Amino acid sequence: MIDPQSVAFDFDGVVADTMRLFIKIARNVHRVKNLTYDGFTCYDLLECTDLDEATLTDIVDRIQDGRYTDPLEPIPGAANVLQRLGDQYGPVVLITARPHAKPVEDWLQQILRLDRNKFEVVPTGSFDNKTKALTLREISFFVEDRLETCYQVQDIGVVPVVFSQPWNNEPHPFKRVASWPELDSMIKWPDTLPEKER
Fold first, then answer.
1. Model pTM above 0.90
2. Sign of the torsion angle spanned by Cα atoms 40, 45, 47, 51
3. Residue 1 lies in a domain
């Protein structure tokens, strides 16, 4: 069971459906028609697409800066769980490899309707810096979609939970969840505890 007072979340691919936005930007801005969600079978997009580096960089920059017209949709169910965590245990900690917090903060307020005092966005600027952010906040569980990060997280004593995506389907030793309702069922909410533990 996940301790609701000591859990943090990645943003892209866990809370936000970023890869579907990636496909829309590729199609509408760069006229790339051959990308499919299930085709992202690895995390390194240069490796699993035929996009050139300049196009890939432009799409990623647009996403990170908030410069897109198609909506960045939430992963179904994320809003309900994050709202409940924020109400009962806030602030919810989101640790992202993005370099800037503001686009994520704005999105959480505008799209998920989360109150600003109910979440903390920690931009690390690098996948490798997430472990430091987790340690500083004494996080015990981290929900992440990048397997390489999950191994790093495990090495510092944090329990990784893999949010299932096409790019993390290779064998691994971690707990996997396929949806936010499944993740919700793993959280040790007060009303799910025996009376003596509440």
1. yes
2. positive
3. no
